[in-house]
Write a structure and sequence with these properties.
CATH topology of one domain: Aldehyde Oxidoreductase, domain 4
Shape: globular
Helix content: 25-40%
CATH architecture of one domain: 2-Layer Sandwich
Distance between the termini: 50 Å
Largest sheet: 7 strands, mixed
């Protein structure tokens, strides 16, 4: 661990306690969505389109409804409808009308696997049998699955009413006609033409990335009960219970106060469990049947119909002087949104050049609909594709300038006060510290030997999130503190938030008991996503701790019959008064009932100081010229983590992001046939890296505390997925002298390049 400033001395923060939910999870006591059971519960199944683009002329469910054991069938027509609008999902936004259409297709099926009807029956087998009895008459239409082809005038149109939204000045508004280009945004800084005129070397390259899935172990699920009093309860595995509540209420047209969402334990998400796919459908089936209904997806359905990240096409042009000073940069980013508008191209545009201080730059971002599943957030959504293209060009630029790749980056590094692509000044950031740590690391300075081996480096960025979090806490008579949270725990946030409350109170992590509760039991809390939870939830925990400290001082003053300002709450949890009087936290907690009752506090925070994060990765590879396989020999991930609350979980987040980024670079991709049917919807055929594909991933934690947080927290979970693609691309080039401009660089792709025609 590298501290770049004089580190503060903490008692709890920086330690590695056992996670509070660990025993429940390793013993099987923790309850996930698939574990939900209710008296009289029905089981559901979903009928999906076999076509990528087809008009739905008629749905006849009469035979399914007549099947013994079937209690309800629903189609899009059973929903009350949804108006145009703009729902904030935490990471991303959604038009309710398109959100509803994605749940159950209305007039058209827009991708292979698009849900068109759902059944609830007394057992799973009957529900699945009933699907075969639903007759759907389709008029098959031409499909488009490539982002560039979708923008051609000859492309099939998905939404006849769609017109391009222009989100920047200087972008010419297109003709008023149907289009697949949902929006065009532009970020502009300085004078691009002037900057390129000043350059001695200019490189322009095109890049493509495939569609990648988050690959969480647990499939989507939902159980709902629409009670006769109009109250709807939903049990689901989600990254944001309040986001689900808002979406269900909007789609079912009931007040949010009549919807309660109970978040179950979650078997992975990475952004893919923010959107909804089953919850309103289960609710409607429950309303029709009068019984609880449980739905879950098969793995094939997860791949077909939940949100992967965008496949992309990028064109990046960068100019520099002979001394390495970058004078201008332009990025053209076209992202697939799937069947409905809303790709993460906006975030990609903001991240593209973020590690660097480039005076003249333009980023064009295009959001394009295609006949594929609606894309969803996936760990630093939008950033991996954008920065893959930028970092790959920088590595090539360093070679042409005969400069060390990290020297080139350091010469142009973003610093506090320099402006980003939108012209806003950076706060205190750690880009330089990360770059220096990479440049000086023994991995980077070591000699690389062997045949067909190579080394690559790349930087990554994520701005991290703030948003709203609420928590409450109660001091118990035994000195333990109950911490009530609204944030789903995916990567250990129960521990990280409990540790920050414990630090504030001067007690141990074990003395804080965190509980993730339903939407009726805590104030509004945004999604667990965007690397916001430890930051924002930590602010709330700190505020709770400050309130408890003040209340404890008041109680001690009452006991000692002295003024509150004569009582001190010390950082070790000791409450001290005049004449040497002293009580421990536990001792005073035992006296609360007799001095006015127990202490309960609550806090809601919305801080806009989340602290951007930077990462730099070094990778060594060996390429097998006979098989095309790329072996990762060594991997080092350097990252500014602000303050590592629980270093083990921070290291795990970084290692997980690297593993997923390696998959993007080398093996993972959605494969569609010419008719737009997904051909590899299984973990067997969608090739994710497993343990024997990876070396031990070394992590270096650089700590540049975020001044916008009481404990210096920066989010850590997003940025490690950003650098792997360009770092590995450069390493492969260094090994065999071939540059690949499309990921994944699978064995097939490499062999096609190496083998003679």
């Amino acid at each position: 661990m590298v501290s770049t400033e004089q580190p503060k001395q903490y008692r709890v923060i920086g330690s590695r306690p056992i996670r509070h939910d660990g025993v429940d999870k390793v013993t099987g006591r923790a309850e996930y969505g698939a574990d939900v059971r209710h008296e009289g519960m029905l089981f559901g199944a979903v009928l999906r389109s076999p076509h990528a683009h087809a008009r739905i002329k008629r749905i006849d469910a009469s035979k399914a409804e007549a099947l013994p054991g079937v209690k309800a069938v629903v189609t899009s027509a059973d929903f009350p409808g949804a108006e145009e609008g703009d729902l904030d999902l935490g990471e991303g936004r959604a038009n309710p009308r398109w959100l509803l259409d994605n749940l159950l297709a209305s007039d058209k099926a827009l991708y292979h696997g698009h849900a068109v009807a759902a059944v609830a029956a007394t057992d799973q087998h009957t529900a699945e049998d009933a699907l075969a009895l639903i007759q759907v008459d389709y008029e098959v239409l031409p499909a488009v699955i490539d982002v560039r082809e979708a923008m051609l005038d000859t492309a099939p149109i998905l939404h006849p009413e769609l017109r391009t939204a222009i989100r920047a000045r200087g972008v010419e508004k297109p003709a008023d006609k149907p289009t697949n280009l949902a929006s065009h945004l532009r970020l502009e800084k300085g004078d691009l033409d002037k900057g390129f005129a000043e350059a001695d070397v200019i490189i322009e390259r095109e890049y493509e990335t495939a569609m990648f899935h988050q690959g969480y172990i647990e499939p989507q699920n939902a159980t709902a009960f629409w009670n006769r009093d109009g109250e709807v309860t939903v049990w689901t595995s989600t990254q944001g219970a309040f986001s689900v509540r808002e979406q269900v209420a909007t789609i079912c047209q009931v007040p949010v106060t009549r919807v309660k969402v109970v978040p179950m334990e979650i078997g992975g998400g990475f952004g893919g469990k923010i959107g909804i796919y089953l919850e309103p459908v289960a609710a409607l089936l429950s309303r029709k049947s009068g019984r609880p209904v449980k739905l879950w997806m098969t793995r094939e359905a997860v791949f077909q119909a939940t949100g992967p990240t965008s496949a992309t096409y990028s064109r990046v042009k960068i100019g520099a002087k002979r001394d390495g000073t970058i004078t201008a940069a332009h990025a053209y980013l076209a992202y697939e949104a799937g069947a409905y508008p809303g790709s993460p191209v906006g975030a990609g545009a903001q991240c593209a050049f973020a590690p660097y201080n480039i005076p003249n730059q333009v980023v064009d971002g295009l959001d394009v609909v295609v006949n594929g599943p609606k894309t969803a957030a996936y760990r630093a959504p939008g950033a991996p594709a954008a920065e893959y293209a930028v970092e790959a060009v920088l590595n090539e630029l360093a070679e042409q300038l005969e400069m060390d790749p990290m020297e080139l980056r350091l010469k142009n590094a973003s610093k506090e006060g320099t402006t980003n692509a939108a012209g806003q000044p950076w706060p205190r950031i750690g880009a330089v510290e990360v770059m220096e740590a990479v440049k000086n690391h023994p991995h980077y300075t070591s000699e690389l030997t062997g045949e067909d081996v190579g080394r690559g480096v790349a930087m990554g960025f994520w701005f991290n999130g703030g948003m709203e979090s609420s928590s409450s806490a109660t001091v118990n008579a035994d000195g333990k503190v109950s911490l009530i949270l609204g944030s789903t725990d995916i990567g250990g946030t129960r521990a990280s938030l409990a540790m920050q409350l414990a630090e504030t109170l001067g007690i141990t992590s074990d003395d804080v008991k965190p509980h993730v509760v339903d939407t009726d039991s805590v104030g509004f809390t945004a999604v667990t996503g965007g690397s916001r939870t430890t930051f924002a939830g930590g602010w709330a925990a700190y505020e709770l701790g400050v309130q408890i400290r003040d209340r404890m001082r008041e109680r001690a003053a009452r006991i000692w019959e002295t003024a509150v300002d004569k009582v001190e709450y010390r950082d070790d949890g000791t409450i001290a008064g005049p004449d040497g009087k002293q009580l421990s936290f536990q001792e005073l907690a035992g006296k609360l009932s007799a001095t006015g009752g127990m202490i309960a506090v609550s806090a809601t925070v919305r801080m806009n100081t989340p602290g951007p994060a930077y990462a730099g990765h070094i990778v060594d590879v060996k390429v097998d010229r006979d098989t095309g396989k790329v072996e990762i020999l060594r991997y080092t991930a350097v990252q500014d983590v602000g303050t590592a609350i629980h270093p083990s979980y921070v290291e795990g987040q970084i290692q997980g992001g690297v593993a997923q980024g390696i998959g993007m670079a080398l093996t993972e991709e959605y494969f569609y046939d010419d008719e737009g049917r997904l051909r590899n919807a299984s973990f067997l055929d969608y090739r994710m890296p497993v343990a024997n594909d990876l070396p031990m991933i070394e992590t270096v934690l650089v700590e540049v505390p975020n001044p916008g947080h009481p404990y210096g927290v920066r989010g850590v979970g997003e940025v490690p997925i950003v650098p792997p693609q360009p770092a590995i691309q450069q390493a492969v080039y260094d090994a065999i002298g071939v540059r690949f401009y499309k990921t994944p660089m699978s064995p097939r792709v490499i062999l096609e390049e190496l083998l003679p025609e």
